[in-house]
Amino acid sequence: MKPVLRFDDPSITVAVVGCGGFIGSHLLQAIFEKTCWRVFGVDLESYRIQQHLANPRLEFLCADLADSSVIKRVAAFPVVINLAAICTPSRYMDEAAEVIRSNYDHPARLADACLKSGAWLVHFSTSEIYGKTSAESGLLNEDHTEISFGPVSASRWSYATAKLLTERYIAGLSGLSWTVVRPFNFVGPYMDYMPGVDGEGIPRVLANFSSALVRGEPLALVNGGKAKRSFTSVHDAVEFLFCLFGAAPESCDHQAFNVGNPDNELSIGELAQKMRSIYASIRGVDVSSIPEPREISGEEYYGAGYEDSMRRLPDVSKAERLVNFRARTPLDEVLRESLEWFVSHYS
Ligand code: UDP
Q1: What number does the ligand 1 atom closest to the CA of 127 have?
Q2: Cα separation, 150 vs 114, whole angstroms
């Protein structure tokens, strides 16, 4: 059963796996600002959380869930938030087996350990589990939407398959206290990396577009940029977690939640134009001096086996009804904050 969590209770320690990543770094900041809790944080990298490493309320372990002794230590805490994942699209294609190991094997073992210890597991899944949606797909609902993936030869779906199997495994563990979060394109400072600088392969679209803008290169529009996404501020995502922490156990135990912002939907082509304008205004130059996007096929960009979700629009009524959460940050604000951060960090 989810424990009662008072924000002013200094005896609470939460375990955050993946605390050094994009979402984890924002979550840590908010926990230290808004609560008296301690954090047992696990990650392989810590550059995003440098400012917290000397905080006596953080115990940081540089490790990952491939190590079974780490799983045991993590599950000893009453609240376990698992943010760890390989979520770089180009790796779904090139390293499918490793993507499946890290997104299924390790979280499944963590769920087993939480069942044993009685910890409440908050598992971060993905909106990618809704699979190969079409341009006509409407609102994606946690409990009613039918899911279909492409064939096994389309490796794009390796990540989604592993994530969905993990959700099914967690839901199948009778007696485990769990909540699943399905993020819809979270964006904000510290998202992903700049290829060739602090990471390799192809990051997600926002980091990719930001990198191209900083380098003065054209943005790559995969298959014409017709796919649509709804972008969500990472600050709203953290706010959702605080709604969850404060919610009654019966509102969130054994539930999967979409966390997204349906008001922020647009096509990737529209996103490219918006980001060109915001970048031009940050730099104080005319938008005509920023290169026009170039179109490229998915196969050429990501390799054979690339398929796409054409629309990912979250039904967010469940989060609103059960934990009183609604994402509110408008798209222009989210994009400007992210791009300003990217420019100041990498320029
Ligand atoms: N995309 C693109 N150019 C890029 C990176 C991604 O056009 O440089 C497209 C991609 O094909 C997809 C959408 O942008 O349609 C979002 O891709 P992302 O990698 O961010 O993750 P997804 O939302 O598909 O999980």
Answers
A1: 25
A2: 32
pLDDT at position 90 is 83
Query: Residue 312 sits in a domain of what CATH number?
Result: 3.40.50.720
Arithmetic mean of pLDDT, 265-273? 98
Ligand 1 pocket (Cβ < 6 Å) reads: 89, 128, 185, 204-205, 208, 220-222, 225, 227, 229, 268, 308
Known catalytic membership, residue 159: yes
Grade residue 260 by pLDDT with cuts at 50, 70 and 90: very high
pLDDT tier at 93 (50, 70, 90 boundaries)? confident
Residue 281 located in a structural domain: no
pLDDT of residue 87: 85
Domain that holds residue 208: 13-270+295-346
Phi and psi at residue 37, in whole multiples of 5°? -75, 160
Q: Please check whether residue 6 lies inside any domain of the structure.
A: no
Nearest to 335 by CA among 273, 258, 242, 260: 273
SS (H, E, C) 198-229: CECCCCCHHHHHHHHHHHCCCCEEEHHHCCEE
Residue 32 contacts residue 13 (beta carbons within 8 Å): no
Start-to-end C-alpha separation, the chain: 47
The pTM of the full predicted model, rounded to 2 decimals, is 0.97
